[in-house]
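Contributing new records

If you add data, match the layout below exactly. Sequence lines come first and carry their own label; structure lines follow with theirs. Keep one chain per record. Anything else will be rejected by the validation script.
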Amino acid sequence: MKFLNNVALVAVLAVMFIMTGCDKTKVYDVAVSRPAAHFVGERNQFYSVIVNPAPVYKLVVGTTDVANVDRIVSFNITSPSGAVAGTDYTIDRAGTVTIPAGKTMDTITIQGNFASYSLGERDTLIVALTQPSLEITAFSDTVRLIIAGPSPCDEANPTLTDLIGNYDNTNEVFGTGPYGPYTTSISAVTVTGPTTGTIVVQNIWDNGWGPITFNLNWSNPSSPTAVVVPQAAIPGSNAGDINPTYAGQTVAVRVPSAALSATPGFYSYCNETFTLKMQLGVTGVGFFNALYTVNMAR
């Protein structure tokens, strides 16, 4: 279901193009894109604070054109882990960056406070370009910056809030059918015990399904597990996506039977990756004899 609509659309557009063609003698208007701002570099970036004082870290902001006047781009910073500006890090500007006339780039400079990270602590900063300012490109409007101290990441002592956010490189396999990449996200985390917690994952299946919750267990840090919490009916789901016979009925999810998977789902806090295993079914009817595996990565 996820592929058919796109294939059909491409075919229709191709036919329309062949049928209409173009007139070489006619002058056509050429669309010119409006100037826009964006981050330069990866969406997920890592900043090591391992010496005192820490070196500065530069986030590069660029524009899609050159102008003969200075241009101001607005941004904001949030931290799901609770990092505080002026305490855990300092920044060289407050909410705006200026692209000088004749230039296409400038930087936002951040410096971590070594005292906040000397024991290996980690924080996450979400830096987002905002309006009003130049138009913002959707493909690179946000950077997720992880600030980490000198100690190596420890799977036995996760800070679950680090896991919140988008996983743009999500791929899945249902039975033998692959799909992806697409974007899932972890919208909420909860610590439930000394070595247990939960995550709430959004956009699994990539077709309007509601959130699905998973139990994390890191009592064995060399093999932490992620196990689905059974749901009799996933909000927004349509079992017709799996089999047209059940169109209009909701999808159920449970831990896979031993015949489908001898091992539970697993994850890595340090690598921020998840392999989530599920068995899908139809609410009140039964379950399909196929393993559904979702691999999430930043």
